């Protein structure tokens, strides 16, 4: 039995190796970017808190829109992903929206 490598399998391995190398190169660059924000200017703690609060509000709003759409969209098409389980989906999205919006208010 001889191990032969075809072009498709070697391309996959080269692609995987390339992705790993790109991640190893990009990671230190991103780490340095966020380190300089912390010590780069005065008042950075308030800037980070404001950014995090805005981010949490956006996630909460997105979850609220998802909960609303789960209820409002008609459920008469069996090919629709939310045909049978739209009630649990709406409840989960509403709970997540409440958690994120509450977290945003606490920040």
Short description:
With 107 residues, the protein is mostly helical.
Rounded to an integer in angstroms, the radius of gyration calculated over CA atoms is 23 Å
Number of extended strands: 0
Q: Spell out the helices and strands N to C.
A: HHH
Structural class: mainly alpha
The geometry reads as flat
Give the domain tally. 2
- What's the main sheet like? none
- Percentage of residues assigned to helices: over 70%
Count of runs of 4 or more consecutive helical residues: 3
What oligomeric state do these chains adopt?
Answer: single chain
Unreliable stretches (pLDDT < 50, length at least 5) are: none
Amino- and carboxy-terminal Cα gap? 64 Å
How would you describe the overall organization of this protein?
The chain contains 3 helices and no strands. The chain is flat, with a radius of gyration of 23 Å. Helix 2 (44-72) runs antiparallel to helix 3. The model has no long low-confidence stretch (mean pLDDT 78). It has helices at residues 7-40, 44-72, 86-106. It has 2 domains: 1-40; 43-107. The chain is mainly α.
Set out the fold topology.
Layout: H1 7-40, H2 44-72, H3 86-106
Helix pairs in contact: 2-3
Looking at this protein, list some descriptive labels.
mainly alpha, 2 domains
